[in-house]
Amino acid sequence: MSLEGKLHIALGASVESGSRSVTISSSRRTDLADLLIGKPLKEASTLLPRLFSVCGKAHAFAALKATMGRDLDENVSRSAELLVLAENAREHLLHILLNWQEGNSPAQALVLPEVMKLPSAFERALESCGKVKEALVFPVISQLEVLIEDHVLGLKPDGFLELENLGELRAYCRERGEIAPRALGALLQTCGSLSHTETLALLPDLSETDLCDQMLADEGAQFVARPEWQGKAFETGPLSQQASHPLIKSVLGEHGDSLLLRYVARLLALSSVPQQMREVVKRKRETETEKAEGFAAVTTARGVLFHAVSQENGLIQHYRILAPTEWNFHPRGVACRALSALKGEGVSLESAAAQWIKAIDPCVAFQIEV
Does the global pTM surpass 0.90? Predict the structure, then answer.
């Protein structure tokens, strides 16, 4: 079995009610953090990124927060947070460039290497002086904004964030020809594409203390493999992050939970990154709040990543990680609910299922069985 694992998703035949059975199983390893047991706390932030390369910056930051808590240096914290945001931008951009258009264009071939290097570009700006300085980091943020505008949106990220309703979204799509307006325009023409009426179950703000206790309990290994909270399998990701945005409310009101809704949420999340970066740079010190000891929550491109650790005399006793994929591809989670509402059979069903799975975005490969 590989370290990454994969998802196996089996779709049954549609029944008279209009739904179909969906079975999601995973060979993804959720116990890799056990490798840290008995090791010094400081090793977590260097070992975990090697095990989880897709979101390595996020795992490194979560490990720092969980193992160091209030002792984490503010400059180190801000630097790590900036790298997570750069990683998030990379993941959103890769997802859009690789999944929202057919075939490979010459422009795509040119921009993909630039996208892949986003985290390292910010690392160089931070390492040049050892501190987070506006004069060094802001130019790199501006370069990211240009990349998003030229190759995805066709307008500045702040401009996309200002869209508030479907009328403005339709006008935006008519006036531009970049990959985002083309993809959104196609979905608008098919009434959102593959909509279903299931009520959203977005991950709420959870008590850090309660969640940490749950993760580190004797049953914690089972919990992080198939997480439920108060009997519900919640969703985490761009949609939960952007749920309060007026444009999300407008699309949801007319098209329900649809591919259009999820495409818009991803674009809002991507467009928010430069603004979030500037806020991190300008922040003098993180606001002191009551936090659970040995716990961290970090927002990634796929949702919120949780780390929980217990230690004795500086050595790790337990270390558990709860990743977004386990919420979103829970056997009763959002992917299951969306796929169970799909129409059609055979090749068309498999194609529609692949679109939805990619939109929800697991961090591992998947296989569909129809």
Answer: yes
